[in-house]
C-alpha cells in the first residue's frame, strides 16, 4: 500500500476516535466549529519491482523533479484533481511512478465479475489495443492490408439496408471511423437507451452484424463518425481472418510476451470480446502498451508489432482539429495531438477512454503516462488529465 494511503488511513482512524470522545460536540450556546479531517501529505517513493517485466527507477534517475510530481499527487489526494483511480509514469523504459488510489470495485466491474480494484475497465482505450491486434494479424499475413474490403472479412451472406457503397468500405475506413453509416453515439449520453450504441447493445445479439446492417449516410472514407460498434466488428473480423479467438490471439501475440497475465474482456452476447470498450487491465500494463508504441513495437527486446504498423497507426489520417478539444488528428484508433515542451512542439499519441482511462505517449521525451478514473457523468471532463501532463509532468522533466 502506498505510504500516503497508510498515513491517510491513520488520520481517519484518529479523527473517528476523537469524535467518539466527544470532540465534535458542545454544550454551550455559541457556534461550534466542526473539525475537518486533514489530508495526509503525499510523499513520493519509487515503484516496487514485482516481476511484471518493468525495470523500476527513482524519478531523479530519469531526470524528473520529485517536487513537481509530489505537488501534483497532493492535488490528486486532496481531491482537487477529482475521480482519479491510478497514475503511472514511465520514462526511458523504466517505471518511475505508480500510485494506486482505488481500493474498491466500481459500477463496471460486474461486466467480468472483477474483484481486483487494481484491474480497471479501459472503456474506449480498448480500441487502441484492438487496432494493435489487427496490425499483428497483418504482420503475420492473416490479413493482406488495411485496404481489404471490410465486408469481405465477414461471412454473414446477406445484409439489411444493402447499399452498393457498403462494398467499398475498407478496413482502413473502419479503423479511422469513416465507414459512412447512419450513426450517432455522442449526441445522447451513454445512460440514454436511445443512444445508438446503447440501443444496438440492448436490442441485438450479434453486434457486428447489427452494425453491418445499418443504412448508409455518407460515402465511405469521407466523414469521421465515432463508432464503438465498428471497433467491436473489427474484433469479429480479426477472429474470422485468423481462425483464433480474439482473446487467445491477444494473449499469445501481445499480452503474454509482455508479462500481462490478468487481462480480461467483457464479452458480447455471442462470446466475442468487446474490443470497443470492454478490456480490463492493470494500469502498469497500460503503460507497457504505451512503451511498446514509443519503442516502435519492441518490448524488452521482443519485436511484437512491426515498426511499419506503429508508424501507420499514428499517422495523422483524419484532420479533426476544427472540432476536437484535445486532438489534432485521428489515426488507427489513436488520438494524435501536439504538446508544447519548452517552446518546442512535440507529438503525442493518446488513447481515450470514458471516465478517464488514458494513455499518453510522448516519444520525443521517451515518456508514457497512464491514468484510470471514475469520472462518469459527473461533469468532470478530461481537462485534469491534460493539466497534470502539461503543468506538472512535462514541467518536472529536467534532463
Short structural summary:
This protein has a domain at 109-381: Beta-lactamase (3-Layer(aba) Sandwich), CATH 3.40.710. It is built from eleven helices and 13 strands.
Could you describe the 3D structure shown?
With 399 residues, the chain is α+β, with helices and mostly antiparallel strands. It has helices spanning 3-20, 66-78, 126-139, 171-175, 196-203, 207-212, 228-242, 246-255, 283-294, 307-313, 383-396, and strands at residues 84-91, 94-100, 119-121, 264-265, 279-282, 298-299, 302-303, 318-319, 329-330, 335-341, 344-353, 357-362, 367-373. β12 and β13 form a beta hairpin. The protein is globular, with a radius of gyration of 23 Å. Residues 1-35 have low confidence and may be disordered.
Please supply descriptive tags for the structure shown above.
399 residues, 16% strand, disordered N terminus, alpha+beta, Beta-lactamase, three-stranded antiparallel β-sheet, single chain, 31% helix, 13 strands
Write the layout of secondary structure elements.
Layout: H1 3-20, H2 66-78, E1 84-91, E2 94-100, E3 119-121, H3 126-139, H4 171-175, H5 196-203, H6 207-212, H7 228-242, H8 246-255, E4 264-265, E5 279-282, H9 283-294, E6 298-299, E7 302-303, H10 307-313, E8 318-319, E9 329-330, E10 335-341, E11 344-353, E12 357-362, E13 367-373, H11 383-396
Structural class: alpha+beta
Distance between the termini: 30 Å
Q: Could you estimate the helical fraction of the residues in percent?
A: 25-40%
Q: What does the overall shape look like? A: globular
Total strand segments: 13
The CATH topology of one domain is what? Answer: Beta-lactamase
Helix and strand pattern: HHEEEHHHHHHEEHEEHEEEEEEH
Rg for CA atoms: 23 Å
List segments where confidence is low: pLDDT < 50 over at least 5 consecutive residues.
Answer: 1-35
What's the CATH class label of one domain? Alpha Beta
CATH architecture of one domain: 3-Layer(aba) Sandwich
Number of contiguous helices: 11
Q: How are the strands of the biggest sheet laid out side by side?
A: 2-1-13-12-11-10-9-8
* CATH homolog superfamily of one domain: DD-peptidase/beta-lactamase superfamily
The average pLDDT value, as a whole number, equals: 92
Q: What share of residues are in beta strands? A: 15-25%
Strand count, sense and barrel status of the largest sheet are: 8 strands, antiparallel
